[in-house]
Amino acid sequence: MPLVPAFLMLMLLACLVGGGASARAQSSPGEQTRAAGAETLAADAQEETPRELAPHERQLARIVYGILSFSHWPQPMPHRVLCVLGSTSYSPILAAEPARQQTPAWTVRAVRSPAANDLLYQTCDAMYVGALPDAENRALWLQMQGRPVVTIKEQSAYCDEGALFCLYFHEDGRIGFQVNLDAVARSGIRVDPQVLKLAREPLGDAP
């Protein structure tokens, strides 16, 4: 997906927020599946001893949870689940961030084999996706099409696989991201245009 100028992105996102993509229908059997799964997920996010994060680690955590805070799901819920899929060195940082920032509304779950679970959209409100084998990667995005799940892909050059947001890493350590507007519209997730400000803050300003 080609890069969109910031001012145009703000206008397009504002349209998505104001007009809103149609909300997804409520899932009936999935409600019980997700509720039962949430108890298991809480046990998976074991907190490690807090440590001082490097600037790029703080920025990544700030961007990911900033994106989530600017996202609005069709159905409000008091507790959300962030699933971490694939190979990524940022799993511990993402898992520890809710406690570090005192945001208990998020539980982080590690998904070892997404190919073995075809109901991820019922148990995950958001996904941080690292490197996956090609077959699993294709299957994941087919499964996620049109689902109200905030998907964030690590290192996606063109952001055309199906993720809503795609992170990229500059040589100087800064982290930026692209927004796939088509995927956002299909998902039913409303995204506040202010999300774009997350990518403009200097690396050292991350708290």
In short:
This protein is an alpha/beta fold and 207 residues long.
Description:
- There is one protein chain.
- The protein is α/β, with parallel strands linked by helices and about 210 residues long.
- It has one domain (about 5-20, about 75-205): Rossmann fold (3-Layer(aba) Sandwich).
- The chain is about 35% helix and about 15% strand.
- A 6-stranded mixed sheet has the order 3-2-4-5-6-7.
Keywords:
single chain, 207 residues, alpha/beta, Rossmann fold, six-stranded mixed sheet, 7 helices, 8 strands, globular, disordered N terminus
List the helices and strands and how they pair.
Blueprint lengths: L5 H14 L9 H16 L10 H15 L1 E2 L7 E6 L5 H10 L5 E6 L8 H4 L2 E4 L4 H11 L5 E5 L10 E5 L5 E5 L1 H7 L2 E2 L16
Parallel strand pairs: 2-3, 2-4, 4-5, 5-6
Antiparallel strand pairs: 1-8, 6-7
CATH class: Alpha Beta
Which sheet architecture does the biggest sheet show?
6 strands, mixed
Tell me the helix content. 25-40%
CATH architecture: 3-Layer(aba) Sandwich
How many domains make up the coordinates? 1
Number of helices: 7
What is the mean pLDDT?
77
InterPro entries: YfiR/HmsC-like
Organism: Corticibacter populi
Protein name: YfiR family protein
Region (Disordered): 24-53
